[in-house]
Design goal:
Largest sheet: 5 strands, mixed
Strand order of the largest sheet: 10-9-8-11-12
CATH class of the largest domain: Alpha Beta
CATH superfamily of the largest domain: D-amino Acid Aminotransferase, subunit A, domain 2
Structural class: alpha+beta
Number of domains: 2
CATH topology of the largest domain: D-amino Acid Aminotransferase, Chain A, domain 2
């Protein structure tokens, strides 16, 4: 049986954006295991009192039940270069523990990460949603591989807009950021689009 996972940012011994993780976890449990009972991560997971660093990632592995909870010190990875990769049959709508497809796609790539094109449109990298800047406005692909929690938060706050983005449109944008639960929009620097290899 396959399993899913959530990765939650813990900052100063407090879960960040937990409502978005709860929503995704409960939607996934309903979809795959027909469980309607609402599960609240923050009520069922105790943050250890002895965490010494400011930032941790809490990884929760689950199927119908919670199987494993880990607290791992977090240091943001440095990603500055991307390689466009086409993969039309990839399906990662849910946060599956099995990420073999990403390992295969990255196997022969010499950039920091890949930016996946599906059905002619840009989607996500292997670890993050992407947002692009034009002037003062930020845009994200309308159809991602995975609807990330940070992406959902930014959409609800109307800080980013949805847009179909093809590789041919990349010259329209000036910069990008890679966002996920750990890489919050305001905590990471933007990168010029010239660092995306085609």
């Amino acid at each position: 049986m396959f399993r899913l996972f959530e990765t939650i940012l813990v900052k100063n011994k407090s879960f960040q954006n937990i409502q978005y993780h709860n929503q995704r976890l409960n939607d996934s449990r309903k979809k795959w295991w027909n469980i309607s009972e609402v599960y609240f991560l923050e009520k069922n997971i105790e943050i250890p009192a002895n965490l010494e660093q400011e930032l941790y990632r809490c990884r929760v592995t689950y199927d119908a039940d919670i199987h494993k909870v880990e607290f791992i010190p977090y240091k943001p990875s440095v990603i500055t270069t991307l390689q466009l990769v086409i993969c039309n049959d990839i399906n990662y709508e849910y946060k599956f523990e099995n990420r073999e497809i990403f390992r295969k796609l990255k196997k022969d790539v010499d950039k920091d990460d890949i930016l996946i094109i599906k059905n002619g449109l840009i989607t996500d990298t292997s670890i993050a949603n992407i947002v692009f800047r034009k002037g003062q406005s930020w845009f994200t692909p309308r159809v991602p591989l995975l609807g990330g929690t940070q992406r959902q938060k930014l959409l609800q706050e109307k800080r980013i807009q949805l847009l179909d983005i093809s590789p041919e449109n990349l010259d329209y944008f000036e910069a990008f950021k890679l966002i996920n639960a750990l890489r919050t929009f305001d905590s990471i620097e933007e990168i010029e689009c010239k660092y995306i290899s085609r």
